[in-house]
Amino acid sequence: MADKEYTDPERMEKIVSLCKRRGFIYQSAELYGGLNGCWDYGPLGVEVKRNLKEYWWRRNVQEREDIVGLDGSILTHQSVLTASGHVGGFSDPMCDCLLSKARLRADQIEPQSGTAYHYTGARESEWSVARDFAVLLREGENENRARKTARQYYAQFHPNKSLSPKALELVGESTTEEEDTTRYNPENGSLLTEAREFNLMFKTQMGASSSEEDPNAVAYLRPETAQSIFTQFKNVLDTSRMKVPFGIAQIGKAFRNEINPRNFTFRSREFEQMEIEYFCRPEDGLRLTDEWLENRLTFYNDIGLPREKLHVLDVPDGERAHYSKKTYDIEFDFPFGCQELEGVAYRTDYDLSKHQEHSGRPIEYFDEATKEKFIPHVVEPSAGCDRTVLALLCEAFEEEEVTDAKGKSEVRTVMRLHPRVAPIKAAIFPLLKKNEEQVRISREIQHSLERFMNVFYDQTGAVGRRYRRQDEVGTPFCITVDFETLGEENPDLKDTVTLRHRDSMEQERIAISDLLPRLLDEIQ
Ligand code: GAP
């Protein structure tokens, strides 16, 4: 049984650093100090993301007769999100550190025990301030630390900003023993504000309305792609002649004003979802939820996330979203702990019923066979695209000790990405850049493959170094055009090349004419 608490921060740091160094993922607006919770995918990252989305689409839409696609707008009508419950309820409890002003998720603060030092205020000469403040000290910590922190807090209110906090005299010190409290900032011991509900949606103004309060001028950036699927359910039904059970799939951006974006791209403020709303008869909901769970686990396995690193959490009563009768979280062993990758939720008829009620328009389904009218129930496999890319990168990263041709050992960094998602499928090298014939053939191979996949041509440096550069970005195949290709040494080998495999580093000889079918077979 895997240890779900296991973390490896050093490995994570290496992955983040490689992502930047080789062009997978950059901090958004890094030039200006960074936009917290937002990320830009570089030349290689964008390829991995596209490969993942295209494969998900192929498996769930193209290869299935019972699922069709949708691409809904990101800007969402206020009424849609009022009906779904997001305007009233899509919030997290939040509190602020009185000292540093850091904003924390109240439900994510680790309970702490210790002695709390309370104060009622501070004074200096004629000046004084009366405000309650407290600092939590853990066992063994010196009480002077509490006083130093309290003085820093009260110094904020002093008109002389250059005054040393040491000049302040604290008022009304008293202590209490605290057990498992979440009222103090674990970083500095400072008291936190009471928790308040904080709506996670980004609100924006539409058009040139003169009033900021005009309800018709308010729109939201969608917090999930699902809602446009529900609001377009009837249109899709009427125009595509689908019959229950059937699904509507969508890939697209979602936005949440997360209080604590963290763990690289894992919790972002702008991210992409890959969602399916699978509409069914009420009596089939629970069975289909179990079937979708298995389907999704197989999918992850097929892109290179091994089953033993995936964990299924059957979310207990009381912890599920209000609309759900059953939810499985699919979790993955990230280097920062075992965390959610996807939710498979049985949302019942909650959403369609709410939209029918709020819009006043019928959204029922008429079953031709049974002559029944009903609101379909829905099973929702909802995956995070960015989280899956992160899982793929984390799983692929490896540093292994290898011995070179001269017997010297070195560390090889290799991204063992599945060929389906690898950003570059094959790199093509002429052995010698000065050999015109080798360069010509290499370019020809490049042009014949690039219509079907992303390939890369490289002629600089020793071949060994070129292999290493490709290993580090996960290129599964390297093709080298050499003297044998020209048939100079052995006519039987004319028009063949070396195909080198990233994971085993083994090489084989293959005819140029066999390259395309062979590679297509490996990457599809
Ligand atoms: N429509 C259901 C829904 O949105 P969710 O569990 O809130 O459910 C589904 O989100 C998936 O979207 C998550 O499992 C995760 O992969 C991804 N996701 C949610 N919030 C995210 C965030 N702040 N950053 C990155 N991915 C996120």
Keyphrases for this structure?
alpha+beta; seven-stranded mixed sheet; binds glycyl-adenosine-5'-phosphate; 28 strands; 524 residues; five-stranded mixed sheet; 28% helix
Write a structural description.
The chain has 524 residues and is an alpha+beta fold. It contains 13 helices and 28 strands. The strands form 8 sheets. It has a 7-stranded mixed sheet with strand order 3-14-15-21-18-17-16, with helices on both faces. Helix 2 (43-62) packs across helix 10 (385-396). Bound molecules: glycyl-adenosine-5'-phosphate. Glycyl-adenosine-5'-phosphate binds next to strand 15, strand 18, strand 21 and helix 10.
List the helices and strands and how they pair.
Layout (H helix, E strand, L loop, with lengths): L8 H13 L3 E3 L11 E3 L1 H20 L4 E3 L5 E3 H6 L2 H4 L1 E6 L6 E3 L6 E13 L2 E11 L5 H13 L13 E3 L2 E8 L14 E4 L2 E4 L12 E4 L4 H6 L1 H8 L5 E10 L14 E11 L4 H18 L7 E5 L11 E9 L2 E12 L1 H10 L5 E3 L4 E3 L2 E8 H12 E7 L5 E7 L10 E5 L5 H15 L4 E3 L5 H11 L3 E5 L14 E6 L5 E5 H12 L1
Parallel strand pairs: 3-14, 24-25, 24-26
Antiparallel strand pairs: 1-2, 4-13, 5-6, 5-11, 7-8, 7-9, 7-10, 12-13, 14-15, 15-21, 16-17, 17-18, 18-21, 19-20, 22-23, 26-27, 27-28
Glycyl-adenosine-5'-phosphate binds next to strand 15, strand 18, strand 21 and helix 10.
